[in-house]
Amino acid sequence: MPQLIGLDLDIRARRLLRTLIAQYLADGEPVGSRTLSRSSGLDVSPATIRNIMADLEDAGLVASPHTSAGRVPTPRGLRLFVDSLLELQPLPSEEMTRLRRELPLGPTTTLDLLGNVSTLLSAMTHFAGVVTVPRQVDFPLRHIDFVPLPDARVLVILVFSDNQVQNRIVQLAKPVEAHELEQAANYLNMHFAGQRVDDIRAHLLRELHEASSELNQLLSSTVELATASFAPQSGGDDVLVSGQTNLMAYAELANLDRLRELFEAFQKKNELLQLMEVCAKAPGVRLFIGEESGFTALDGCSVVTASYGAQGRVLGAVGVIGPTRMAYERVIPVVQATAGLLSDALNRAATAL
């Protein structure tokens, strides 16, 4: 029997597969030939439908559960459905209105905004909402202050364009007078506000090699303060998850061992963060069905994500995790629209600097 994949499916087979998957996604039950005959609109005999279903089963696109004569789509069948049979439509206006209404886009920290996005995605899809948290240094710097501490230490206060505040303690070779710290802060704020920390540090390293540079003259022997203030920081990457308990409502995920493994993955976050970082590197929507994610805990789940960013830079990804039996035609536009609104909010914050 030739393998039927992709566009090699004839019109009748594609129509029956689309009908079967739509019916299965709607009610979660195996779909029989009689139902297909009524729902597909094809003028063919039940025997012809059974033969086509047998071909689709041989191709690995549908399967017959042991307890039923009907068939269900396999992950491979769902992949074909999403890639070539699903007709995506823009998010309905009432859904878009709800997103805009419930996603506060006014002055707020990025972390608060991302938490709202995760919660809203969960509420709109009834799945688990996930959002990666970008490195703080990926946002432009708004302001810097220095506070002298005992033992030649300095508290560095960094205020970013997203209203987030980060404190760092820098150890210097010798104490610095408060007026010198004030001069240094004024210089950095005047010349570097609106730039990313990594870019500021690279600029400073070049400038500090010039003996006549303004910064060298300004800070005298304490030039290390400026570069130490913007040194790369470890950690900071994270992923926010909301609505994990929603997944307990789906029979296909209700096995206790499966749920335990899935919730442990949500708690540890390492594998989930790796997956979301892969998604963030690709533009547009990414979809993993079942084993495609490469992580055992997500077998039986689908992951739908879209990247977000600001000022031409990708900062992370938003998405949902749910059972493979999900309404892809609705979930994909919801995720895509949410990523777009989040990017718009971050762009506005960056340009308001």
UniProtKB/TrEMBL annotation:
Q: Which residues form the signal peptide?
A: none
Keyword vocabulary terms for this entry = Repressor, Stress response, Transcription, Transcription regulation
> What functional role does this protein have?
Negative regulator of class I heat shock genes (grpE-dnaK-dnaJ and groELS operons). Prevents heat-shock induction of these operons.
InterPro entries membership: GAF-like_dom_sf, HrcA, HrcA_C, WH-like_DNA-bd_sf, WH_DNA-bd_sf, WHTH_transcript_rep_HrcA_IDD
Which family does the UniProt entry place this protein in?
Belongs to the HrcA family.
Where would I find the Heat-inducible transcription repressor HrcA C-terminal domain in this sequence?
112-332
Q: What is this protein called?
A: Heat-inducible transcription repressor HrcA
| Any GO BP annotation | negative regulation of DNA-templated transcription
- SUPFAM superfamilies the record matches: GAF domain-like, Winged helix' DNA-binding domain
Provide the GO MF annotations for this entry.
DNA binding
